[in-house]
């Protein structure tokens, strides 16, 4: 089954359904999406997944530290992918649980549930979810190789220093 534009349910931030061409109900997790849009005015796209490795750390309520530099793209203010505390899906407890963590990072885990990536652009939001899953895989393997001992990770200040190399010259 494929998603088509007809299947997209249009809503406002008060959870009113504005348009549902195919007559579908919005996902019960739409309240969580709405809270993220309210908490982050710079965000226009949310990618929510239950990807295997990220969700495994979410099950353990274990934030993922910045073990590779690529995570600089995830804007980790505290140098970790934080975990939003557990809330039952579809309840205000769940939608409220993501508000503080999503202010600290563009990618977060949801305890005993899954993961979220956000951006102003839908493609980039999905890409951030992919980065999050990749980081979770690398962290998992680093832990296994290291006998369960925490690998070294980057300080938030080091991640914030990233800049496109000024040495690269464009002809126009
Ligand atoms: Zn979910």
Explain what you see.
- A hairpin with a 5-residue loop joins strand 1 and strand 2 (17-20).
- Helix 2 crosses helix 5 (122-145).
- This protein is of the alpha+beta class and 172 residues long.
- Strands 3-8-7-6 form a 4-stranded mixed β-sheet. A two-stranded antiparallel sheet has the order 1-2.
- The mean pLDDT is 94.
- It is built from 6 helices and 8 strands.
- It is globular.
- The structure holds zinc ion.
One letter per element, helices H and strands E, the order comes to EEHEHEEEHHEEHH
Identify low-pLDDT runs. Answer: none
How are the strands of the largest sheet arranged? Answer: 3-8-7-6
Query: Could you say which structural class the secondary elements and strand pairing correspond to?
Result: alpha+beta
Q: What would you call the shape?
A: globular
The main sheet comes to:
4 strands, mixed
Q: Note the gap between the termini.
A: 46 Å
Mean pLDDT across all residues, rounded?
94
Q: Measured on Cα atoms, how large is the radius of gyration?
A: 18 Å
**Bound compounds, please?**
zinc ion
Strand content: 15-25%
The tally of beta strands, per DSSP, is: 8
Number of helical segments with 4 or more residues: 6
Could you estimate the helical fraction of the residues in percent?
Answer: 25-40%
SSE order and pairing:
Elements lengths: L8 E3 L5 E4 L9 H10 L5 E5 L2 H8 L4 E2 L14 E2 L1 E2 L7 H6 L1 H6 L2 E4 L3 E6 L2 H24 L10 H5 L12
Parallel strand pairs: 6-7
Antiparallel strand pairs: 1-2, 3-8, 4-5, 7-8
Helix pairs in contact: 2-5
């Amino acid at each position: 089954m494929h998603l088509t534009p007809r299947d997209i349910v249009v809503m406002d931030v008060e959870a009113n359904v504005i348009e549902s061409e195919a007559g579908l109900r919005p996902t019960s997790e739409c309240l969580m999406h709405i809270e993220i849009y309210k908490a982050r005015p710079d965000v226009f796209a949310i990618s929510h997944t239950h990807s295997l490795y990220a969700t495994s750390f979410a099950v353990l309520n274990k934030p993922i530290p910045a073990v590779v530099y690529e995570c600089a793209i995830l804007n980790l203010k505290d140098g970790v992918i934080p975990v939003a505390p557990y809330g039952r899906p579809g309840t205000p407890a769940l939608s409220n649980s993501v508000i503080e963590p999503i202010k600290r990072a563009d990618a977060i885990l949801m305890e005993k549930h899954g993961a979220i990536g956000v951006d102003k652009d839908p493609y980039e939001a999905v890409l951030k979810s992919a980065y999050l899953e990749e980081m979770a895989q690398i962290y998992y393997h680093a832990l296994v190789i290291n006998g369960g001992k925490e690998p070294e990770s980057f300080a938030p200040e080091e991640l914030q220093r990233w800049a496109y190399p000024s040495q690269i010259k464009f002809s126009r």
